[in-house]
Prior knowledge:
Elements: H1 3-21, H2 28-35, H3 39-45, H4 49-74, H5 78-95, H6 100-104, H7 113-140, H8 150-164, H9 172-184
Amino acid sequence: xxxxxxxxxxxxxxxxxxxxxxxxxxxxDEVSQTSGIPKGTIYLYFKSKGDLFVRVILRTxxxxxxxxxxxxxxxxxxxxxxxxxxxxxxxxxxxGKRHRDHMLKTGRPDLPPETLMIIHKKxxxxxxxxxxxxxxxxxxxxxxxxxxxxxxxxxxxxxxxxTSVEMKGRKSDKTALDIFLNGIKxxxxxxxx
Length: 193
């Protein structure tokens, strides 16, 4: 088995265990047992349990970044891009709903200091990159929306996406997206411009 495949197997097992048991109750021994990869080998890939936790988060954020790129390149209308991003990100959140709190509340003061340090160095820049990608989308469509700061719109959009997960029913994507778009879209003027 090649190195990248092993790494992904370890990350998959860790993601499931962190989601099921939380950071503190998950052990590297359990990750080893679940993944079928020896504990010593896991430490060749990840310095600590905290490093493994952060890498799970970074992998998810990397996938979200790719989703934004795919959606922004395949759709022409802002509404279609936002709908695409919302569906893809929402699907990732729902897939990992069990561990959503562990993934989203990464700045918890009770995490080990070395883990918090890794989060500060690695996760915050990754989040900033995702927001930057979305801000670029909003900037590209600035003629169609009210003159809000694209960075603020990106932040608020992701808040809507995360919040929509709590909404029940299949229409929740559309409802959240409608609320968001109706708030930022320019209203046609009386003279038709």
